[in-house]
Amino acid sequence: MVTPTPALPIISIAPYLPATYADYSDADRAAVAAQFHAACRDVGFLYLNVEGFLLKDDMDEVLTLGTEFFERPQEEKEKIHIGSMDGARGYQRYGENITQGKADHHEGLDLYAANPYEAVEAGAKPRPLQGDNQYPKTPAGLQPALEAWVDKMHVLGEAVMHAMALGLGMDEAEWKAFWKLSNKSFWSMRLIGYPPLPPNADGRSCGEHKDYGNLTFLHTDSTPDALQVLSRSGEWINANPVPGCVVVNIGAMWDKWTGGMYPATLHRVIHKAPTYRVSLPFFFEPNFDSNITLLDAAKRTAAKEGIELVPEPDVLYGDYLLGKVSGNFKY
Ligand SMILES: N=C(N)NCCCC[C@H](N)C(=O)O
Ligand SMILES: O=C(O)CCC(=O)C(=O)O
Ligand SMILES: [Fe+2]
């Protein structure tokens, strides 16, 4: 059974955004931080109200341009195939993304922060996550719209990380130190196109998984009943789009930072309606070389709230990501 209506919290981020920060008091920010703490601890998914920060026209335009890209001839899309770069940056065909060993029913364009290594040697094949992003040439407006989106998502990323840090019980000095782990975010972004699942197929548009980093900001078209999230009581809930909001979910790095107090939530996409669905998840991640270790603030808050933490071994974010990306494609 899938619960038909979203039972997820809606949080307004305006008190933490640079353009509106001064309009709010520290008490307002503490209230928002407390909302994040409850949502991350108890639910794992939330809606972020971004009205006034993201304009409806821009939100619509980036998906319209994305749809136009997916409508281009297959051979044109394949000119920027991931196989002609590092195996991760670029276009992937329908069925090439693998989740839990099974092909997903979607096509996509994957983008990442700049190459974290030395430049690719002339004539050499880029290693995974090395090299450059491959942007479509047509429609011409898509690359600038995606680049503008990435800039906006960085502003949102810092604001939400700040609110979550305070919600976890950090003071401003601790937050400043903590921010250094994500201030050169090895971000990632996917433009995903989902044809309807074949009738009577029990396949997955995107199989169940957890996201890899800090936070995901998901913008989708208005298609309902596609994205599902696993509630703490073990039911799949439809996280349907809410106008003026992006869906936020917690990734594996916050799970590690908090010893499981903010668990990364399982989610999946099952899109059966007879329309072509387009989504744009932006993954706000730590720096490539950040070491992720249990936070003191998590230990303090857990002790105060009587929560038992389950610490995990430290990881370097870049190593963790490479481990995931290397298993993601079959082509
Ligand atoms: N960058 C992120 N988080 N991407 C999530 C992709 C999820 C599907 C992927 N095949 C997997 O198995 O993880
Ligand atoms: O398309 C969606 O709604 C979600 C996609 C997703 O979960 C992902 O790419 O990590
Ligand atoms: Fe995801």
Automatic annotation (TrEMBL):
InterPro entries: DIOX_N (IPR026992), IPNS-like_FE2OG_OXY (IPR044861), IPNS-like_sf (IPR027443), Iron_ascorbate_oxido_reductase (IPR050231), Oxoglu/Fe-dep_dioxygenase_dom (IPR005123). Residues 185-286 form the Fe2OG dioxygenase domain. Keywords: Iron, Metal-binding, Oxidoreductase. PROSITE patterns: FE2OG_OXY. Belongs to the iron/ascorbate-dependent oxidoreductase family. This is Fe2OG dioxygenase domain-containing protein. It comes from the Eukaryota. It comes from Vanrija albida. The keyword Iron applies.
